[in-house]
Specification:
Shape: globular
Order of helices and strands: HHHHHHHHH
CATH class of the largest domain: Mainly Alpha
Mean pLDDT: 76
Number of helices: 9
Number of domains: 2
Oligomer: single chain
Helix content: 55-70%
Structural class: mainly alpha
């Protein structure tokens, strides 16, 4: 899975962004609104790729944005702001997934109703079709495998970073990543063949 250089990522690591981030930390409304407006598409995409189904994406996205705002005072500026924000989003998404699994165990869940996706701006129809096919393949992986593949290939996290973020042993993460990739290859071969 290849990732493209994100212009927003470059923009939010530039020294010019520091005053806006500081202003948001101080609670200035314009800076906060500007920061959230810029983060919203990125956060929504991360959430959508991390969970199964689209019914909870907006709620989890909102929860993640609130967590980013509340956590702003903890951002020390030692790395790219978007990397810090991505980790906050992943923690919120992971917690939401855990809650959802617990609820499913308690309630005899029927079929999950999937909502139609909104097309991503500036995407060609082929990109949308490819993205949807990839999402369907990812949905066939176990939660652990899907999360490992997404954290590594989409969010660019290393295996040690993933182990820390997921609170699982290093070898478990490596196994999930390896088996997730192998399973994706098999699914893709079936799709193509």
């Amino acid at each position: 899975m290849m990732t493209r250089a994100n212009p927003m990522c470059r923009a939010m690591t530039a020294p010019a962004e520091e005053p806006r981030i500081r202003a948001a930390m101080e609670g200035r409304r314009e800076a906060t609104e500007s920061l959230l407006a810029e983060l919203l598409p990125r956060v929504r995409t991360r959430v959508r790729y991390s969970i199964q189904g689209d019914s909870e994406v907006d709620d989890i996205t909102q929860e993640a944005l609130v967590a980013i705002l509340r956590g702003l005072p903890t951002y020390r500026g030692e790395g790219a702001f978007v990397s810090w924000a991505d980790r906050v989003v992943e923690r919120v998404t992971f917690a939401a997934s855990k809650r959802a699994r617990a609820e499913r165990r308690q309630v005899d869940a029927g079929t999950t109703e999937e909502l139609a996706e909104e097309p991503v701006e500036d995407s060609s129809p082929e990109d949308c079709v490819l993205r949807r096919q990839l999402e369907k393949l990812l949905e066939q992986l176990s939660d652990g495998q899907r999360r490992a593949v997404l954290l590594h290939h989409v969010m660019g996290m290393s295996v040690p970073e993933m182990a820390e973020a997921l609170s699982v042993p290093f070898e478990t993460v490596r196994t999930r990543l390896r088996t997730g990739r192998a399973h994706l290859r098999e699914l893709l071969a079936q799709e193509v063949g």
